Amino acid sequence: MGRPCVTRMERPMKVLPTARILIIDPQMERRQATRAGLAALGVGALTEAASLDKTEHPLSEGHMDVIVVQADDLNQVPENPFRQCGGVPAILVAEGTPSVLTRAATMGGYDAAVGMPVLPRLLYRRIGSVLQRARRNNRPQVAAPAAKGADMTSAG
How confident is the model at residue 4, as a pLDDT? Predict the structure, then answer.
């Protein structure tokens, strides 16, 4: 009468219910499939667009937490316009070997890359790691410890 054995792969993943994700892909069917896969895993708000130019909200105002850009050709990867100043994290999804994907993502200013065909669970995990890294980078720095022998109390 014990609990049934549940393997690690059958356990539900930690959900990103508050993440606001923009999926950019010129191919509508692929974009919708990516959206459906992420929604099935419990991702919060998902928005789609055919290109960065066709987004409803200006990304610079903080309306998105992560951008997922799917590219058909590694030679025509759109540059991440938020690569400067610690802007919105971006993930590149394209077909290619890991080393080629990494090079294209770095050149385009992306935080991570995922190969095609994209598996929703892998993309979900990559989104989580990119968000975690962005949060870590935005944490305030801990003050340096006081010099040895300095008095930690205020003068009264």
Answer: 47
